[in-house]
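User: Can you fold this complex?
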Amino acid sequence: MFSHLAWHDVDTPLIICCWLTCIILAKIIFHKSRIGHYIPESSLLITLGLIAGYILDHLFVWDIYLHPDLFFLYLLPPIALEAGYMLPFRMFFKNIGTILLYAVVGTCLNILFISGILYLFSSFYQQSIPYIDLLLFSTLISAVDPVAVLSVFEEIHVNQLLYINVFGESLLNDAVVIVLYHSLAHMATIEQIESYHINDAILSFATVATGGVIIGLLFVIFTAFSTKLSVKIPVVQPLISLLLPYCCYLTCESVHMSGIIGIVTCGLMMKPYLDGNLSDKMKTTTKYFMKTLSNTCEAIVFLFLGLSVFSKSHIWDFVFATVTVVACVTVRFFVVIPLTSIANRFRVKRIALVDQAIISYGGLRGAICYGLVQTLDQDVILAKDMMITTTVVVIVFTVFIQGSTIKPLVRLLRVKTEEDKPQLISTQVLNNFADDVMAGIEAVIGRKGGNYYRRRLSAFNHNVLEPNLMLKPTSRGSRLVEKVCEMNNEEIRRNLLQEYQV
Amino acid sequence: MFSHLAWHDVDTPLIICCWLTCIILAKIIFHKSRIGHYIPESSLLITLGLIAGYILDHLFVWDIYLHPDLFFLYLLPPIALEAGYMLPFRMFFKNIGTILLYAVVGTCLNILFISGILYLFSSFYQQSIPYIDLLLFSTLISAVDPVAVLSVFEEIHVNQLLYINVFGESLLNDAVVIVLYHSLAHMATIEQIESYHINDAILSFATVATGGVIIGLLFVIFTAFSTKLSVKIPVVQPLISLLLPYCCYLTCESVHMSGIIGIVTCGLMMKPYLDGNLSDKMKTTTKYFMKTLSNTCEAIVFLFLGLSVFSKSHIWDFVFATVTVVACVTVRFFVVIPLTSIANRFRVKRIALVDQAIISYGGLRGAICYGLVQTLDQDVILAKDMMITTTVVVIVFTVFIQGSTIKPLVRLLRVKTEEDKPQLISTQVLNNFADDVMAGIEAVIGRKGGNYYRRRLSAFNHNVLEPNLMLKPTSRGSRLVEKVCEMNNEEIRRNLLQEYQV
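Assistant: Here's the predicted assembly.
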């Protein structure tokens, strides 16, 4: 009577708030208790989801599962954006060749091997599933999940080289998997597959990925522009930095390009512009709010994955599930190791054998597999329910068993770990200097390598974009000079003393 | 074919994103052009809404208006939270008496006078509207809108005394209006009104307001607790600081207490705990994200108000609208001036006549009126459509004409304005010292005044909450001591030189 909002108006947001409060409470309890030291948070959240799912399933007849739309429209974009924004720019581009090798060639090999193994077993076994269905299933099960990988690797602090390779692969292979998945889902409806269908699929992969990158870059320009123009109204800047990348994702998806590639590109490339255009306060706000948002979305994803175990439509097939789990884990080793030996031929800094073991072992599966398996068409893929169950088993296995044992394994194999220490100004100066020298050497010998293109891009930003478009990206060099100019002698002396530990 | 998300999945978020992008663009254009210097942003956004509404209305047959649920559930809470969080704590409690006088007594007088004037006119005029309907309408039209007030007063930088009185009133009178509105809406359905109905209304007002405060305080304890416990996982802290106050709002509304009082209390009182528990980075993130969010919600509200002008259900009644506008503007003067003279008798620092003029003139109406008028029951209040139109007229008039002329008026009347300057440490120390001395004097003479209760609250926080509940609010005094202890002699010398401008 005394309020215009009745319970039925308030219930949806209140239920969402209650779930979020549960997640916060769970996180606090994990961190306060000693469990958090041994088991990654993602496994614990899945367990929480399992328990909650069990209770809800027994109390109410409620069929909760992670709806693919919810995941692909609202939960994935913030996670992908934060991943792109936090990706170490320099390391990513230095390793782009290896990452692409893993993400494209590696994923295709994974799919072929897994589908082969599954086909062999299913033909021996009572039921026979068409090869194209198994190929489709192998495709989605090969998607290494950036969310799962990030949540585990952030805790174990491996060296940056290993981190960037595993994480970069998991980001890019999603695009490969999603495109292949849709091509195959289309093929599964065709009676007779001709060679031009396969050509189409390859062509469409190239289009979808390139389209994503191009739309991403377009939105980088929009973001750079609008943050530059809104320097006097800082209050809208965090909104711009979150809204435009999300627009980019939606635009990509609505024109059937890869949204995940688009938003990662946008997040990665907009960073220097935000660094230049946002004040320190707004930069902190944007960065940490992105972190909070993506962390929350991750937690929701894992909780829902746990809840999904009690979904009504499961069909358990023990043999199929076991074979899939074993295939997923072992095939990755047989793919990563030969590919790395090829990559090492072209690398200056080689990837060690222990690092290869961790790359293979760190191929965790997560919500992307689950989202894709849910979107399968029941009328075309008759074994859909069994595939859902198997996917849940693979996710729970990789996140639980592999996720929990990777930390001891890293210690056992004595993998080089990284310490979180702020980069010293002298290191930064030397790095920039080395880059410039390398670019100079490349110019002298007339070879156009990575350094050459890096210089060209930075020159393009400075000379072309700046005067006409009023964009001013921060070059690290000029920032350092500014920093030094702002310092007085006393501060410089203190810094030097600290750096050289005199 | 190559994407799982089709256009019909993506369209809702994409349309929302497009509107937000339009708002950002509009803000940038306002600030870059010189219009922004003369007309407040709120008026400009209403104009933009008007233009967009006109175009959409002519292109499509689309009935867009600000749905009350959207406003009360999603747009109002962030604005109220930010308002509470940013409210100057000290000034607010120093002026609480005057603010309550304006908000409770003032609003009731406003309602009575406006309804009287409208009743007189409507009985002379062709149509006769029942007095209870007019009383209901007068109630909702008396709601001074914190959003409109804030958006205008933030730009003109009046002195803090004036600001806190206008803004504090607008925050609290909403609660009064909302409660009265619901009591009256209930009464309008009753044939014969007895005196106990009026007693009930008064009682329910007290319950609803107190209930809001109590629930707000409960959530302050939850927030203080959870931020204290999550010091090691800072990434969830901004989420806690936004989520729990929103939960507070929803809880209040679901148990029929005043959500707006609840969330303002929560925002206001949680601040010292967040100051103590959050790191500087997280504090910045929380504060500026709140600002961005509330700023965006405000912009959406004004844009929608403009769009609402072209809603299909309008019935224009020129005389009724004119009488209402004139009554709203003039009655406020006749209420504020006598009330201030009463308040001034009890005040040490009196409110000057020019300040009273600005308080009267600054009673802008906004979305709360609109939200309430939309929730009227068409079957009970036959003149609903005419009332909606009149409300839109009043809002547009007050925001446009009063909002744009208040800045020149402030200059004309030579109202004391405030400069934005950071408080010096010496001023803070002196203020704290003065507070302590005042509390001491009150203790000596045995009177329990505001200073006594402030000391008691702070002592309660320190002695009772801290050791048992592990909460540690920052008392400004102890923070200052910490600050000074962290400084070395050189820094102290530099600060002193700067403060005394030697």
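Chain B is about 80% helix and 0% strand. Chain B has two domains: 20-412, 426-501.
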